[in-house]
Amino acid sequence: MKVVDLPLFNSYVFVRCPEHQLRKLLLVYGVTRIVYYLQRPAVVRDEEIEAVKEFLKIAEDKDIIYEGDQVEIIGGALKDKSGKVLKVDKNRVTLFLEELGAKIYVSLSEVNKLNKD
């Protein structure tokens, strides 16, 4: 199996250079423009870069949950119960708990995928 890392922001290259040298970047093959914000070259602060790195570390440890997956509830009143995912929304999942014969809504942060691919 071959593992390939993909860039977080496709088609963007981040550089650290003095502002007066930014124009020289346009001479590099493939560079088409410099991103501006409020008529100034856009700046990504070190804290923002660290926040993205931290987010990626957290996201790396989470499995993507799809309809049909079996999940275990890891928090709340129904902790340790498992169910089948009926629907995935932005922040929650709709589960069917066969044990209770009920459909429930649970925060995505409170479920773990059971059937790993």
Query: Which percent bin holds the helix content?
Result: 10-25%
Shape type = elongated
> CA-to-CA gap between the ends?
14 Å
User: If strands are numbered along the chain, what order do they take across the biggest sheet?
Assistant: 6-5-4-3-7
Could you name the ranges where pLDDT drops below 50 across 5 or more consecutive residues? none
Class per helix and strand makeup: alpha+beta
Strand content is 25-35%
Q: List SSEs in N-to-C order.
A: HEEHEEEEE
- Number of separate strands: 7
Mean pLDDT: 86
The largest pleated sheet is described as: 5 strands, antiparallel
Structure description:
The strands form two sheets. The protein has a five-stranded antiparallel beta sheet, with no helix packed on it. Strands 1-2 form a two-stranded antiparallel ribbon. The chain has helices at residues 22-25, 46-60; strands at 36-37, 40-41, 70-73, 82-88, 92-97, 102-107, 111-113. Helices cover 16% and strands 26% of the residues. It is of the alpha+beta class and 117 residues long. The model has no long low-confidence stretch (mean pLDDT 86).
Layout of helices and strands:
Layout: H1 22-25, E1 36-37, E2 40-41, H2 46-60, E3 70-73, E4 82-88, E5 92-97, E6 102-107, E7 111-113
Antiparallel strand pairs: 1-2, 3-4, 3-7, 4-5, 5-6
